[in-house]
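[stage:ingest] chain + small molecule (iron/sulfur cluster)
[stage:ingest] validated
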Amino acid sequence: MVYCQGCPWRCAYCHNPHLLPAEAAGGIAWSEVLELLQRRRGLLDAVVFSGGEPTAQPGLAAAMRAAKALGYRIGLHSAGIYSRRFAEVLPLVDWVGFDAKAPFDASYERITGVRASGEAALASARALLASGVDCEFRTTWHAGFLSTAELERLARTLSELGVQRYVLQEFRDSGCLAFRPTQDAVEADLVALARHFPQFSLRPA
Ligand code: SF4
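[stage:predict] done
[stage:export] tokens:
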């Protein structure tokens, strides 16, 4: 896993707040990562770029190419924030874990704190599904920030877009600075959600 520093969104439930600023002390140079990957050739199968938000990195495609040239398969965890760069790296990746946060309208802004964030995410989701790259869509959920009606609406939209594999991730409060639940997570109707997808699972907190 390569954790990329920096994310322009401010999701209430982010549990990696230390990765949000674009700059931070104690980072590891990409050249050092490459050296490690060279030493581990044949021992590791894949490199997964995570974050933060990997598509915030101008050097993402070059880094993926370098890892691929060493024989690694490439994974990407992304919320599809920078849709142009997201589309640019799709031909380089073998698998994507895509964070779908809410119905792609004003609900998105409520979670991310950023205007038009739903439009960027939707453009990236469409590009991913059109690419045919193996992928999983996932949503972090707590009733305190996404109602069951919104969750159902999101599931319907994802299904209509062609999502095959969907994971509902229960909110974890470890590391989360901005969101303290004032209510218990209400059980979502998992059976109703599962009906939208050929593959559905719940990832417990
Ligand atoms: S997009 Fe991901 S990394 Fe960025 S604030 Fe939201 S949860 Fe955190």
